[in-house]
Specification:
- By secondary structure, the protein is mainly α.
- Among the domains are: 79-176 and 272-296, Cytochrome Bc1 Complex, Chain D, domain 2 (Orthogonal Bundle), CATH 1.10.760.10; 192-266, Orthogonal Bundle (Cytochrome Bc1 Complex, Chain D, domain 2).
- The chain has helices at 40-59, 78-102, 105-110, 112-129, 131-134, 158-167, 192-205, 216-226, 228-231, 257-266, 281-296, and strands spanning 9-10, 23-28, 31-34.
- Strands 1-2-3 form a 3-stranded antiparallel β-sheet, with no helix packed on it.
- A hairpin with a 2-residue loop joins strand 2 and strand 3 (31-34).
- It is flat and about 100 Å long.
Amino acid sequence: MDAENKDAVHVGKGVDAITGTATTGHEWDGIQELNTPLPRWWLWIFYACIVWAFGYWVVYPAWPLISTNTKGVIGYSSRAELAADMAALAAQRGAASKALVTASLEDIQKTPELLTFALAQGKAAFGNNCAPCHGLGATGAKGYPNLNDDDWLWGGSLKDLEFTITHGIRGDSSDTRLNTMPAFGKDAILDKDQIVTLANFVLSISGQTPDAGADLASGAQLFAENCAVCHGDEGKGNPELGAPNLTDRIWLYGGDRASLVDTITNARAGVMPTWKDRLDQTTIKALAIYVHSLGGGK
């Protein structure tokens, strides 16, 4: 048969001489189609699945309607089941949750039973809400702070952490943490050569090696005129302004020359959500206790 003609040729039904199986009467390129029925057990399972599907449609919510869906004869609802589970969890936590609401952060930390409960709840809440940015181990990534290293833009005390979690950073709360670093290059405050000079000075105060022949005296002058007001005369930062310490070699966006030039040129404006409208006060307290316990709290 011509290779371009793939249509089946109808021939008379018969019995295949080799297998002894009846044929369907179809032939492709000299190959006859055997009439091999599906195994009976397979067919019964197939039919049973169809019956099961119809039964499922009747018993459980299944079909979408214009504004709702079929409810099913047993009235099952995954939302209702979740609500019941959450209510049972709240009842189980009961007294401990109430104690967290009324106790101060310091009292929670001093009370072993409350501390254990807060750490467990805080760890769960961290995994659900914070880990996507900070990582499960809270080690962070470029642009997302490491919460284990005792280096804090806005302070690492229990109160500081609670405030930051509650109101966020550049979030939608009226009390959100907020600062603005000028984009010295993009806004034409400094030219490219001045930015490179300033970056080399920052490299030097952080214990790194600046470019050969870098004019550190000019860099120091540029730093004093443009950066010291927030980062301090020695570049050690200011938690009240959220200004990072530039001498400790802990960098949120990278501390190599190229990263520093990029930061000085374009500035940075990371955002942390405001959690006060998403999490209850008990959970926020538990998160503050948990983050503080990671080894980076002050």
